[in-house]
Design brief:
The chain is mostly helical. 70% of the residues lie in helices and 0% in strands. The chain has two helices and no strands. The longest helix has 74 residues. It is rod-shaped, with a radius of gyration of 45 Å. The protein starts with 9 loop residues before the first helix and ends in a 9-residue tail after the last helix.
Length: 120
């Protein structure tokens, strides 16, 4: 197989010939990964699969924990909301009773005979 090399300048050729007569020339290619034999691919894929399973297992565990915490918070918010509604209803009931009591007292005071020493 013939590998095409880019044209080098005359200075570079001279420099290479002077410096490295015994240094083997490496082929210039755009690939940054070396090719492996097919027998090496299966164990590497298994290792990568195992690593991905470990990472995804940890992530899934974190997601499950977050979901559990959110469900707990949702139940607490629902419980607190229900309690607040009950408290408001009790307050409304108490307010109505106070208003009725105030009306009764006011009507009773109007029916009292006016005393000579009391001024309005």
């Amino acid at each position: 197989m013939t590998i095409a090399e880019p044209l080098a300048s005359a200075e570079q050729n001279l420099l290479e010939s002077e410096i490295g007569r015994n240094i083997p020339k490496l082929p210039r290619t755009g690939a940054s990964f070396r090719q492996t034999e097919s027998s090496d691919v299966a164990p590497a894929a298994e290792n990568l699969g195992g690593l991905l399973r470990q990472v995804s297992k940890a992530s899934m565990g974190e997601i499950d924990n977050l979901i559990s915490e959110l469900q707990t918070l949702r139940r607490k918010i629902q419980t607190d909301g229900d309690r607040i509604v009950r408290d408001i209803e009790k307050y409304e009931e108490l307010n109505q009773q106070v208003m009725q009591l105030t009306t009764i007292i006011s009507d009773s005071v109007k029916k009292l005979p006016q005393a000579s020493g009391i001024t309005r």
